[in-house]
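Could you show me some protein's one-letter sequence and the numbers that encode its backbone in two labelled lines?

___
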Amino acid sequence: HVLLEDMLCNLSAHQIDENSNGTVREVMTAEFQADSLMGGLFEAGKVQLLMTKDADLPIVYGDKCIIITKCSGKTFTLASTCNKTLSSAISYLDESRQPKIKLDQPKYPIFEGVTNRRLRVLMMVLCGCDVCPKGVHNA
């Protein structure tokens, strides 16, 4: 917890005062799978960024879902299924902080604009995901 909070503060990824646009209210650590907890918090509007290496989350929760996939030193990597979402997110940061952020933009944004969650999940399984890593053969 403390390491993540310190790193976010050092990156100026959030401000400590409540009057700023971004704060970290609580850093949570799950003992097991945290996907449903993080997704529920995202859907309820209680969080705007999810820190995970699991690329399935932005697929399941839609184009507005942004994840922090890597956090090292004074840089971090943001990922989403939507290039427009990533561009918009970085525009809110101070220009001096932008070089510290890498955008993991989808090479083939096949999920962009797909709003039906069941269809997104079906596409995810066909392409390959945690549940079916190699995807569906001859799909």
The chain has a mean pLDDT of 78.
